[in-house]
């Protein structure tokens, strides 16, 4: 039942209330989802080292990820960040996103009610696909930079 759930701060309270009712999700469930998921990520042989190289202090990252999932799943507007630049230059391909999704699906299935798990998994899959495209685009852009220096066929060095 939704009326005994703790109050939630949202930029769109009516929409958030409707989503909580429909999915069975709330902030506490999302917090558990995020913490348990990143426990798994950190212990994972493929993903763990990528995160370990970039995140020293996990407290702020986990808080940010709870805000992200609150915004994505319950439309609370609590997350103000930019996921694309945070991922575009990571040394990852679809294998990494696939592993990320496998761990996320398993954790969502354990922590969320079934409708809530389906809701967050559908969004995670969509976002993973768009982050993967951003990684691919960044790779293509880097390798497509023309050589402007070093003297071309016309003898100019491109610095003029
Ligand atoms: C290959 C899989 C992934 C890897 C290796 C990865 C890795 C990382 C790392 C290392 C950071 C910290 C960046 C920094 O602070 O410098 C980060 C941030 C973040 N990640 Fe991922 N990630 C992956 C997939 C995803 C997916 C699928 C989502 C969403 C469904 C996601 C959402 C986020 C968000 C929201 C942030 C915080 C961005 C910010 O506001 O600064 N990540 N990720």
Give an overview in words.
The structure is a single chain. This protein is mainly alpha-helical and 160 residues long. It is 65% helix and 0% strand. The chain has seven helices and no strands. The longest helix has 30 residues, at 114-143. Bound molecules: protoporphyrin IX containing FE (HEM). Protoporphyrin IX containing FE (HEM) is lined by residues 47, 50-51, 54-55, 64, 68, 81-83, 86-87, 90, 92, 96-97, 100, 124, 127-128, 131.
Q: Determine the number of helices (DSSP H or I, runs of at least 4 residues).
A: 7
The count of β-strands is 0
Rg from C-alpha positions? 20 Å
Give the termini distance in whole angstroms. Answer: 70 Å
Give start-end ranges of low-pLDDT stretches. Answer: 155-160
**Helix/strand-derived class?**
mainly alpha
Task: Please sum up the structure shown.
InterPro entries: Globin-like_sf, Globin/Proto, Hemoglobin_trunc. This protein is mainly α and 160 residues long.
Keywords:
160 residues; mainly alpha; 7 helices; globular; binds protoporphyrin IX containing FE; iron; heme; transport; Group III truncated hemoglobin; metal-binding
Write the layout of secondary structure elements.
Blueprint (H helix, E strand, L loop, with lengths): L12 H11 L3 H17 L4 H5 L5 H17 L8 H6 L5 H18 L2 H30 L17
The structure holds protoporphyrin IX containing FE (HEM).
């Amino acid at each position: 039942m939704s009326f005994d759930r703790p109050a939630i701060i949202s930029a769109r309270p009516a929409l958030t209330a409707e989503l909580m009712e429909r999915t069975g999700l709330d902030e506490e469930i999302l917090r558990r989802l995020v913490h348990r998921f990143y426990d798994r990520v950190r212990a994972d042989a493929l993903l763990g080292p990528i995160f370990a190289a970039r995140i020293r202090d996990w407290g702020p990252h986990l808080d940010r990820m709870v805000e992200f999932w609150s915004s994505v799943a319950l439309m609370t507007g609590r997350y103000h960040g930019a996921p694309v630049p945070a991922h575009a230059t990571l040394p990852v391909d679809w294998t990494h996103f696939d592993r990320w999704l496998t761990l996320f699906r398993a954790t969502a299935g354990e922590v969320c009610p079934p409708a809530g798990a389906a809701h967050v998994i559908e969004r995670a899959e969509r976002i993973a696909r768009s982050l993967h495209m951003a990684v691919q685009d960044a790779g293509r852009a880097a390798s497509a930079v023309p050589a402007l220096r070093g003297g071309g066929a016309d003898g100019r060095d491109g610095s003029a």
